[in-house]
């Protein structure tokens, strides 16, 4: 009987990252609208940063994860100067696929929620393939 290697990731991993909204984070600045509030692309980037942070301590050598699917509801506007917190929780592992539930909050208010799926890849091989494209 051959011994199975321990999986690199297990459901339950969590991480949080925060951001104080600046003019550079607004919909006006990132080109996703014309209002001076936190832009959806920045909300998504923050949510993804939380998923990356959740995998950091368990990442196998030479590996990384890349985003492959996102479902995100941006529910509330956040003005410049407010602090938002993105939280990610690994909820499912299917081979190399990692599925996270994510939330972004401004105090008690939910700014955004959704799911982010990432794929575990060999970093060097991924970069080499991208360069050939």
Question: Could you explain how this protein is built, in words?
Answer:
The chain is of the alpha+beta class and 133 residues long. The chain has 3 helices and 5 strands, in the order βααββββα. Mean pLDDT is 94; it is low at 1-5.
Features:
133 residues; alpha+beta; 3 helices
Number of helices: 3
Name the poorly predicted regions. Answer: 1-5
Order of helices and strands: EHHEEEEH
State the helicity in percent bands.
10-25%
Content of β-strand: 35-45%
Oligomer: single chain
The count of DSSP E runs of length 2 or more, i.e. the number of strands, is 5
Mean pLDDT: 94
**Tell me, what's the shape?**
globular
- Write down the Rg: 17 Å
What spatial order of strands do you see in the largest sheet?
1-3-4-5-2
Structural class: alpha+beta
Largest sheet: 5 strands, antiparallel
Our measurement of the CA-to-CA distance between the termini, rounded to an integer number of angstroms, reads: 42 Å
In short:
Helix content is 23%, strand content 41%. It has 133 residues and is an alpha+beta fold. Strands 1-3-4-5-2 form a five-stranded antiparallel beta sheet.
